[in-house]
User: Fold these one by one.
Assistant:
Number 1:
Amino acid sequence: MHQLTLAEIARGLADKKFSSEELTKVLLARITQLDPQLNSFISLTEELALEQAKAADVRRANGESGALLGAPIAHKDLFCTQGIRTSCGSKMLDNFKAPYDATVVSKLAAAGTVTLGKTNMDEFAMGSANESSWYGAVKNPWNLEHVPGGSSGGSAAAVAARLLPAATATDTGGSIRQPAAFTNLTGLKPTYGRVSRWGMIAYASSLDQGGPLARTAEDCAILLQGMAGFDPNDSTSIDEPVPDYAAGLNGSLQGLRIGVPKEYFGAGLDPRIADLIQNSIKELQKLGAVIKEISLPNMQHAIPAYYVIAPAEASSNLSRFDGVRFGHRCEDPKNLEDLYKRSRGEGFGPEVQRRIMVGAYALSAGYYDAYYLKAQKIRRLVKNDFMTAFNEVDIILGPTTPNPAWKLGAKNSDPVAAYLEDVYTITANLAGLPGLSMPAGFVDGLPVGVQLLAPYFQEGRLLNVAHQYQLNTDWHTRTPTGF
Ligand code: GLN
């Protein structure tokens, strides 16, 4: 039963082949048995899950239907869940039980999903390896000595290991797409403003976006349907109708114009990944797509710009964790300054502290113009490159990451080496565009992802292309040994 996709689960439940309660019990047992190898969960919510599963079974018995009614999922542990620990992977929030549900959580619960637990993540979503979590590193089910990617590494490892069919995640600079690539999943970062950020603990507010991680594009369509939509509680949420994503999966790719940026195939890219990307291009050509070389000339400036803007916003967002209102408080503070210093010094790990320092520096008087303002100008240039490219092509295709998943610990002493791995993903966040990663093959037994980018609000186009690709390839069906 654990091999079923969300789409298959919906059919099985509708045909009364099994109940949501039965399925939930099977998955909870599987998590208890297998997760000690992976460390993909921070909290399990068995009681809530069984309650929600029974309620979903009653709703179905009363004639209700719906693709998510009775579907087991998990939430990345930065989505607030009422009365349940919402840790953000940090000692700072280890004792924090959210007083309300994030909009994503309440929308999905209303659609009938069953929450199995909260998944591990890089502390405050800062990272690309899921090694900065206070709860320990997550392991990649494809090779337990390798990282699963980050920051949504717990959601990715759990779904890849068939502990559950799909999970929520967030992407500030690649944290849905990069772990999807590293664990052979399909992951979608929606257009900025498509999915509400209300109750999603902020890392960099102008870049953060929630989205689905699943095994197939079809399942991403199903989960996104339950997450997307206008939310008056989020001032950056956009009031744009949500299309029926599942209904849009079967469009023909005949004549689809795919842009391949020449800058993507530079020196940093593993040549074996370059070959797999070429194979995926050929596959899409067979389906009728037309390939065009394009240019994104400002791509080389994106990493430095992102690693100014994201820490700047983080330094501001994380100032609320001061030991006063919620989260970790140091023992016996001598005075207010001591309370702030020690609570934050003890509560935040080294990567979070590094980013707060970089961000506060970039925003400080005298350096603001030189760093923050400059980075914002680059951000506009990056966006303009995309706008020019999308005048000529319908989607942009390339690798999701320059290398496959690295060994645990390999980049711990060199944060910049890890930052450079984000080269293909962060431009979409800087521009606010939707992006998807899907399985494209293996290198040394480790999965490789191909990334598709589309114009604003064209999530449906990305899902359609990925679904057609998956109907004609079987990379996404491969299962890691032992799971
Ligand atoms: N790796 C990037 C960072 O560390 C992106 C993280 C994310 O998308 N949350 O900032």
Number 2:
Amino acid sequence: MKPRIAIDGPAGAGKSTVARAVARQLGLAYLDTGAMYRAITVAALRENIDLEDGDALGRLTRRLQLDIQSGEDNQNVIFLDGENVSEAIRLPVVSRGVSYVARCPEVRDVMVDKQRQIGARGGTVMDGRDIGTNVMPDAEYKFYLTASLGERARRRLAELTAKGETLELPQMISEISARDKIDSERECAPLKAADDAIHIDTTEMTTEEVISTIVHTVNGQ
Ligand code: DC
């Protein structure tokens, strides 16, 4: 079976870009699990569901049809009841709400089931918060990416500015640290490095350096 690779870490550590490139270079599939929680958040916001109402979020999640396909450049293309929501899931309003949705056990049960089914096929790079600890605890390789809060906020800001959003760095720093707090303090599968994960502090590294560190580790070089 081809290897399973778990890449976890806080928001803005560069997981998605790195995981996608690693998957491409190693000929593996890529799953962005954060995108799945974001898609549920899009639906919840559209239906005006209270993001603190776990029962309602659970019912919504069980009712929705969530499909993930591999698109251009190995990007995940996310369909919600047949509609492509790949752009909507990146809106700032979704980023602000998603941690509330992702901390809800009823939502996580459904998402984690789906992620495990995909992981069971092998040959997958998955990025998220609980992949090494909970979704694929027996993955062959586990990485935990971090970077300083300021650097993570700068990276997220650069992504959003490129899309025409106008946000200031102090606001981005406070949004990211609020998300980190909810993600790491929640009861259900919080953000946490697996005991056997390889830690990579990416603050001073280029994306290419992070990618090649992971690829070389997997290739045993
Ligand atoms: O990686 P991201 O920013 O797209 O993640 C969106 C949210 O989903 C974030 O608040 C953390 C949460 N998440 C999670 O709880 N578990 C995962 N496996 C992936 C993401």
